């Protein structure tokens, strides 16, 4: 079984040959038409012979193009499950792009790619993409790196703050004392509440949440509209179970791990 990049290239070349043959057929048909319009019998007979030869060549080229994709349905799905991530990473590396695999996700800062083998597609940054030729997808990832983000970190910060406040108030019987604002709330609790609606966790998974945390920490803002300052203490949280940690990969390829969040009032 060849790799996908070569397989797509084979089909592309076969299609190009079919197009070239089709153009030759059109040319001979026009020649026949012109000879008939002029009443040139000798040229018309030559054009008729050439047209028949062009048709034979086109039929052969079309047959080759139709048979040029050699993957069966089963092979397509298996390749996406087992080999695609490695090939995409290798192709991307030749373009100067790093891809890191974490928890079944492919991260090429700032994009997140999820493989959808059954659909012969990927989900990139929440959008389903059916164009999976490795070189093409790598170019899309490079383009994403260069364009400005539309993510609203300010809205994300306000969401974190609202959930954090609800948790702290609930544990303080509704009366917030100054010390309550020093409390570190595990981000796992925040995430569970943010994705409590049915299907929300599927559309916004842990890697998405980790990326939003990274964007907020890296680019701000750090203060809410009510003047509370956010921080992401690690402390002993880094020794917690993996399910309590959120990991993203920065532009330098280093893992950034998050455990808890704290809002400091008036800080």
Order of adjacent strands in the largest pleated sheet: 1-2-3-4-5
Beta-strand percentage range: 5-15%
Distance N to C terminus: 60 Å
Percent of residues in helical segments? 40-55%
Tell me the major beta sheet: 5 strands, antiparallel
Taking pLDDT < 50 over at least 5 consecutive residues as the criterion, the unreliable ranges are: none
Q: What is the string of helix and strand elements?
A: HHHHEEEEEHHEHHHEEEE
Task: Give a count of the beta strands, DSSP E runs of length 2 or more.
Answer: 10
Mean pLDDT: 89
How many individual domains? 3
Radius of gyration: 29 Å
What overall form do the CA principal axes indicate? Answer: elongated
Structural class: alpha+beta
Total number of helical segments?
9
Question: How is this structure best described in words?
Answer:
This protein is an alpha+beta fold. The chain contains nine helices and ten strands. Helices cover 52% and strands 15% of the residues. The relative contact order is 0.09. The mean pLDDT is 89. The strands form three sheets. The protein has a five-stranded antiparallel sheet with strand order 1-2-3-4-5, covered by helices on one side. A three-stranded antiparallel sheet has the order 6-10-7. Strands 8-9 form a two-stranded antiparallel sheet. It has three domains: 4-66; 73-146, no CATH class; 153-265, no CATH class. α4 (84-94) packs across α5 and α6 crosses α9. It starts with a helix and ends with a strand.
Task: Give the gist of this structure.
This protein has 267 residues and is an alpha+beta fold.
